[in-house]
Amino acid sequence: MSHRRFVVNSHISFTVVIFFFITFLCIFPYPFLLADTIYSVDLKKRIDPIIKNISLKDVSFGIQIVSVKENIPLFSYCSDDVFRVASNMKLLTTAAALEYLGPDFEYTTYVETQGTITGQGTLMGDIVIRGSGDPNLSGRFFDDNILAVPEFWGNAVKNRGIYKITGDVIADDSIFDRVYVSPHWPENQLSNWYCAQTCGLSFNDNCVDITLTPEKKPGKPVLLFIEPNTSYFTIFNNCICTSNKKEHKYSVYRRPETNQIFISGKFWVGAPSVKQWVSIHNPALYLATVFKEVLERYGITVCGDVRLTDKTDILNTRLERIAQTISTMGQTISVTNKRSQNFYAEQILKTLGAQIHGNGSSESGIDVMRNFMNKLGFHPDEYQIEDGSGLSRGNKLSPEMITALLTYMAHHRHGKVFYDSLPVSGVDGSLKRRMSSPPYKNKVHAKTGYIAKTSSLSGYIDTANGDILAFSILMNNFKSLHDMRKIQDTICQVLVDSYN
Asked: Which helix H or strand E contains 37, and what residues bound it?
């Protein structure tokens, strides 16, 4: 009897255990994800009140937050809907560059002679600048000396013993096509620095730097300090200084497809100096003109003209290399993301086309980016790419796509280069003045983005347990940019607070 009672009691105990186990499975169907489920529920409770903010009424937006370690979403809101992304497009462009070319890829620009150099120092022929699409030919890596690169080349020519060039200074920009501006960009903004033209040979971000300084006496034209000071463009200064602060309003404008720059309006005598960056037309000729002027300043006579290479040129015979300038893709990606430099992103886009498909066009570069998106698991019908920088309003991605990209790059062999290129909260780039208080400073590594009625923030947050959160917040059709950025920052602060 006692044995029988033992069996019966054991059976009852086993039945109770099974009952509670089945009940547990009904409540928590994936017990191995219990920790992440708890996190998700807690995160939802924290974020839901934020996205119910009145300023988000009628705003189109999506959010995705993912555990990189587990590759599972912790929070999602309209995450598979596509939105305009603005400069978050640079995440895709720079990631594709690391995937297909790597950070050690080198841009090399050559200066070569074409012809015979006589004993008397005369080059019987041309001097050629052969471009590679390098966006770094500026003062950025040379102590802000805009002329550092052409002066280095000029010294190399002089040290070769050349004092006269009978031919031309030829700009070989053939690595890229000569479609300088995307047809999807706003036509009324093309003279602004963020619409700088792309080219196989570029210089000073394909802009001229103009600093406006007021005269002390009203009625006088505003003073202009121009870098580089070159004959390549013509400036018409019709901007007059005024003693009336309320009249302070001026404009700087370049006439389309010319290098005529018009400065007009009124400039208050008590205003500080202001620097404007104006895009130039036909960048290869810009660089060649500045180089010719440097040569002449160094006492080297150039008898010919400045011109672009054409189909009649034969540039592979009797060449002698005089100088070369090298930069890397790693440098280029850092500037692209930290400074959100559209020009750099578009140069990378055409570089992808030139190096992977042998066609230095935006369309060819976009094909490479589509191939990369396919690796991430997305079909071309699901998104839209129109440029490499995000300036076009036609670029459309989803938060899910961006977090997939971020997760992929977190495990990538060049993932650290990508991570380090992103602005850091309270430290540098476009996040220098955002989330700068001690709990959040240096915690968020993310790319910002803004064009009209579009704001985005996507990137990484490290957690105390060694995981990384990849997040993407895309916002369209809002009234207040300030409100959108505040909401983005608040969500990031919640993530930092929740996981640290």
From this structure: helix 34-51
pLDDT of residue 465: 87
What are the phi and psi torsion angles at 213 (to 5°)? -130, 130
| Tokens linked to 326 | 């090298």
Look at phi and psi of residue 97 and say left if phi exceeds 0, alpha if psi is from -120 to 50, else beta: alpha
d(CA 89, CA 340): 10
Residue 175 has pLDDT above 80, yes or no: yes
- Mean predicted confidence (pLDDT) in 112-130: 95
Instruction: Point out which residues pair with 223 in neighbouring strands.
Output: 213
The answer for residues whose C-beta is within 8 angstroms of residue 381's C-beta and 6 or more apart is: none
> Looking up tokens 């996190």, which residue turns up?
39
Query: Phi then psi for 164, rounded to 5 degrees?
Result: -150, 135
Neighbours of 312 (CB within 10 A): 5
Contact 435, 425 (CB under 8 A): yes
Identity at 254, one-letter amino acid code? R
Q: Taking a C-beta distance cutoff of 8 angstroms, is the pair 137, 287 a contact?
A: yes
The label of the residue with tokens 């090399």 reads 108
How far apart (Å, rounded) are the C-alpha atoms in residues 232 and 280? 9
Map out the domains of the chain as residue ranges: 33-103+330-499, 106-329
Closest to 127 measured CA to CA, from 387, 282, 306, 296: 306
CATH level 3 topology of 106-329: D-tyrosyl-trna(Tyr) Deacylase; Chain: A; (3.50.80)
Fold of 33-103+330-499: Beta-lactamase (3.40.710)
Question: b/e map of 461-470 (b: 16 or more CB within 10 Å)?
Answer: bbbeeebbbb
Q: Is 424 helix (H, G, I), strand (E, B) or coil?
A: strand
The pLDDT value given to residue 40:
55
- Band of pLDDT at residue 30, cut at 50, 70 and 90: very low
Nearest-10 Cα torsion for 372, 377, 379, 385? -40
- How many whole angstroms separate alpha carbon 446 and alpha carbon 485? 13
- The token pair at 41 is 């529920």
State CA 170 to chain mean position distance.
Answer: 30
Q: How far apart are alpha carbons 496 and 500 in whole angstroms?
A: 6
Q: What band does 317 get if pLDDT is binned at 50, 70 and 90?
A: low
**pLDDT value at residue 400:** 98
Tell me if residue 371 falls in helix, strand or coil. Answer: helix
In a 13 Å sphere around the CA of 121, the CA atoms on its Cβ side amount to: 12
Of residues 302, 305, 271, 267, the one with CA closest to residue 285:
305
